[in-house]
Specification:
Helix content is about 50%, strand content about 10%. The chain is α+β, with helices and mostly antiparallel strands. It has one domain (about 5-220).
Amino acid sequence: MINPATLDFLKELIKNNNREWFQEHKGDYDKARENMIEFATSLIGELHNIDPGIDEALDSKKSVMRIYRDIRFSKNKTPYKNNFGISIPTMGLRNGGVEYYLHITPGESFIAGGYWMPENDHLKAIRQEIDYNAADLKKIIDEPAFVKLFGDFRNQEKLKTVPKGYEADNENIELLKLKSFVVWHKIKDADLSKADALQNVTALCTKLYPLTVFLRNALA
């Protein structure tokens, strides 16, 4: 589970996002990060049983994303993120962006899956897969239980115009316009701190697995 103290640390960080406060509470940060690493280790093991595309030897320390922000080109100069993130790639650390992602921030935590804003070559490959096998994708994203958990897959970033190589009258043009292929489900703070939090997150990822397979096949 995610310790309540981990969420408490993030709550205080949101109110005190500066280096002086962070250094004074470095011990609290270290404990919170260790909690996230432990959760990531367990989650990787559980997900490998569901999705063989996940390497069970994946280093959980590398899956827990850095809390330090790159402020060089940002107008927002706060030095730290107000969240912890666990990224679990399904094609290795450097080979593709199909992943499961757990975002932990007080009141706004969620589990997500898919491929966020793929690079051009991958985008073309995914669009081709949709063009060839749209029925398979629609069977996944229009399934009532999937919609109830994750909402409308079509309601995310997309082109305003028709993508190159396709016609406006293509019956799947709204899917082909998509620039991102992700879904997410919000998780309450109280649920993250329950003893069965790992099982509940894993169950949500099980529902994400068919989408993961579709996207991964597009890049194979």
